[in-house]
Each structure stands twice: as structure tokens, then as C-alpha cells.
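The pair is quoted verbatim underneath.

:::
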Amino acid sequence: MTEILYYHLTEKTLEAVLPGLVEKSLGRGWQVVIQAGSQERIESLDALLWTFRDESFLPHGSTRDGSETDQPVWLTTDDDTPNGAQIRFLVDGAELGDPTGFERVVYMFDGHNNAEVEAARKRWKRDKESGCDLTYWKQNASGGWEKMA
């Protein structure tokens, strides 16, 4: 069964935490999909993954790059998974229809954005009612993650 995780960002931004989570996923040997709510966000994530650290980058691509099946990290606004990813990160209110086929689905939402918090609550309720295995993580004061539910 697919694990669905909710990551509530309260102390650090998406840009500060997403690259590390992607790096850990790749370290597990997983392919990754990052689904965003807009093409503008895809563009900013594209730049971020190339430059988030001076000494390294995270290899990735999107539809404009081609070679979809060869990309370790796929950036998209759709629910496509051409690289056979085991984990999917959803940001900026992106929605996924069917989570089956993934080891994990991770919804990341900004705790300072009321619309994102409300949307996450609705998704949580929907996923809970459908019998999914859910976990809720919230950032502590130092930006680390604490399992809340």
C-alpha cells in the first residue's frame, strides 16, 4: 500500500527542504517525480535543483528536456510518471488522482498559506476515508520534522 505523507512547512521554505528530501529519495535508489501547481513553479524548481548546493546538483528534467524515461527526477504539472518513480512530491496545491503504484506520495504545504492548509485538510480527510496509510509531519522550531499523526 502507498504511504501518503503530509509535510507541514512552518519554519523553513519548500526551497530549503525539498532538495534534501529529493536527495534522500535518490539515495534510496528511487526515481522521483515532483508535481507542481504551475509551470512557473516548475521553472523555479528546475533552477533550484541545479544550484541548491555549490558542490553538487540533482539531475532532473521536464518535458522541455526530453528523455523522460531516463530522468532520475521528473518535474511536471501533470500526473504523468514517465520515469517509473517510486516517490511523488506534490507542491503548490498539485493534486494526484490515484496514488497506487508509488511507495510514497508526499504532499508539502506552506503553513503560512491559509488556502494550502485548508486544501491539505480536505485531502487528509478524503485520503483517510479511502483507507490510505497516512502520516502527518510538522516542522519543529529548528526546521526538523516531528511526526504528529
Remarks:
- The CA atoms of residues 11 and 142 lie 7 Å apart.
